Amino acid sequence: MAVVVAESEARHILDIAEGFMKSQVLFTSLKLGIFDLLDKSAAPMTAVRISEAIRADTDATKRLLNACAGLGLLLKENVDKETGDGEYQLTQATRTFLTPSSSTNLGDWLGRLAVVFSSPWGDLPKAVKEGPTFSTLNGLDRGRTFEDVYSTEKYFMGAMEGLTTVFGARTASAFDLAEFQNICDIGGCTGPLAYHLAAAYPKAAVSVFDLPEVVKVAEDRRPVAEHAERVSFIPGDFFQDPLPPADLYLVCRILHDWTEDKVLVLLTKMHDSLPQGGGVLIAEHILDDNKSGPEMAHKYDLHMMLVNGGRQRTGQEFKRLLGSVGFTEVTVRSNSYPFGHVLARKQRV
């Protein structure tokens, strides 16, 4: 192996191994409130002022801030050539995606990832050895419900909003859905994806069907926009209660939570509730049919295995599941980030 190629391969392996270090820089900065502090500041701040504000060691804070600047999370300016000290401010991307004042804040989603960093991700060797036994003891099958998750996990609701707030327009435009007049987002949380759909399809009525605990707070998070007024919220449990009437059901990052038997129950329920020619749109991290990629789908396939016993699936697996309960005309589009999409129909008249 040529030296240059060998070094490149070694660097690739080291990049994978050291990736957790980058994550911890980001997670720690979020946890200490550094980005929020700089967002509220009228001017760039020195490491001394930041360390005082967060009640931390000055030298350690300085080193963390420099790491953030090196990763492109902060801008460092007015640098003293002798000491290397300077002032720090947010990049536009950090202000947009990592501050509570932003409507596209991903902070809660990243906060949830930070929580699971040590456990259950630290338990991956145990999970691989034990397989379903680990999932049964640690996942939703052990009797823990999503009501429990919403009520006990600090970041969960915000985490469920984050990705669809930022990337939901891609789901709304993955297929031309203009023919559907009544769209229902099953398990759609406080409605970020529903708002994208309402904006994209002004003639459609859009609803969100989710747990009563979620619907209670949804109104407080409704954006001020004309299209947002066309989104309604319906409380219920999609396994226990009848589904609201619709000619298109949407499930975004829902099916990956569940084992195949539960997925079939929900798909059957949607099929039975739809009119002839109605549809179901699935948004998930879809694996390639040969299961060799993409990277994001593999990461979240392991994540679902660890946190609740779920899994990511291939387009072919979705086709099989959908076909088994009567759906036809199944189309898979899996080459978009972060979600792939599947559209299927109930048999037309």
Descriptive terms for the model:
Arc Repressor Mutant, subunit A, 10 strands, alpha/beta, seven-stranded mixed beta sheet, single chain, three-stranded antiparallel beta sheet, Rossmann fold, 349 residues
CATH topology of the largest domain: Rossmann fold
Low-pLDDT residue spans = none
Strand content: 5-15%
CATH architecture of the largest domain: 3-Layer(aba) Sandwich
Outline the biggest β-sheet.
7 strands, mixed
Question: Termini separation (Å)?
Answer: 62 Å
Main structural class = alpha/beta
- Placed side by side, the strands forming the largest sheet appear as 6-5-4-7-8-10-9
Helix content, binned percent: 40-55%
Written description of the protein model:
With 349 residues, the protein is of the alpha/beta class. The chain has two domains: 3-99, Winged helix-like DNA-binding domain superfamily/Winged helix DNA-binding domain (Arc Repressor Mutant, subunit A, Orthogonal Bundle), CATH 1.10.10.10; 114-346, 3-Layer(aba) Sandwich (Rossmann fold). It contains 16 helices and ten strands. The protein has helices at 3-17, 19-31, 34-40, 47-54, 58-70, 92-97, 107-116, 124-130, 132-138, 146-152, 156-172, 192-200, 212-218, 260-273, 295-307, 315-324; strands at 45-46, 74-77, 87-90, 182-186, 205-210, 231-235, 248-252, 279-284, 327-333, 340-346. The protein has a seven-stranded mixed sheet with strand order 6-5-4-7-8-10-9, sandwiched between helices. Strand 5 (205-210), helix 13 (212-218) and strand 6 form a beta-alpha-beta unit. The longest helix has 17 residues, at 156-172. The termini are far apart. Catalyzes the transfer of a methyl group onto N-acetylserotonin, producing melatonin (N-acetyl-5-methoxytryptamine). The active site is at residue 256. Keywords: Methyltransferase, S-adenosyl-L-methionine, Transferase. Residues 121-327 form the O-methyltransferase C-terminal domain. One of its GO terms (molecular function) is protein dimerization activity.
